[in-house]
Each structure stands twice: as C-alpha cells, then as structure tokens.
Amino acid sequence: MSTIVTVQDAVTAFADFMEPTDAELDAIEREMPVILADVDLIDAQITTLDRTPTELDAQRIRRARRRLLAARRTLANQVATGAAGGAA
C-alpha cells in the first residue's frame, strides 16, 4: 500500500493571498519603459533570425538598442536620485 503525499508549496503556490505588494507593483511600473524597450529590441532581433538582415533591419536593431540604453540610463538616474534623498 502506497501513501498519498501532497506537496504543500505546489498546492498553495497560486493562492489568492500571494498577490504582489504595492511596492512590487510600483517597481514594475518604474521599470516598464525598460521592459518595453527590451521587448522592441528582441522583436527586432527575432525578425532577422531566419534571413540575412537588410540595412533597414540593422537600423531597426540599432534604434531599438539605443532606446533600451536610454531607458536603462533614465531608470538608473531615477534610482540614484531616489537613493540620494531626492536631491537633484
């Protein structure tokens, strides 16, 4: 006779009380421009996977990479400013 064992973590992993906190949602909101820029870059790179990239494809990838770097810089500056007590 075998015993039946439940895995508590698997059962409660998606319980209602496991919602993100307000701080986590605020962090996601602050990082959303970086996330969207990263998605744009990945989309541009995926487009060129099955063919030789044209000059237009290369330009799209460069533009997406610049937008991602700018979004990361902006986020880093916001975090640094916030950590310094909000003084500009």
What distinguishing features does this structure have?
mainly alpha
Structural overview:
It is a single chain. The chain is an all-alpha fold and 88 residues long. 68% of the residues lie in helices and 0% in strands. The chain contains three helices and no strands. The chain has helices spanning 8-12, 22-47, 55-83. Helix 2 runs antiparallel to helix 3 (55-83). The protein is flat and about 65 Å long. It starts with 7 loop residues before the first helix and ends in a 5-residue tail after the last helix.
Topology (elements, then pairings):
Layout: H1 8-12, H2 22-47, H3 55-83
Note the run of SSEs as H and E: HHH
What is the count of DSSP helices, taking H or I runs of 4+ residues?
3
Q: Indicate the structural class.
A: mainly alpha
**Average pLDDT for all residues:** 86
Q: Considering DSSP H and I runs of 4 or more, what fraction of the residues is helical?
A: 55-70%
- Major sheet summary line: none
Provide the β-strand percentage band. Answer: under 5%
Low-confidence stretches: none
Distance between the termini: 70 Å
Sum up the overall morphology in one term: flat
Can you count the beta strands?
Answer: 0
* Rg: 21 Å
What is this entry, summarized?
It contains three helices and no strands. The chain is an all-alpha fold and 88 residues long.
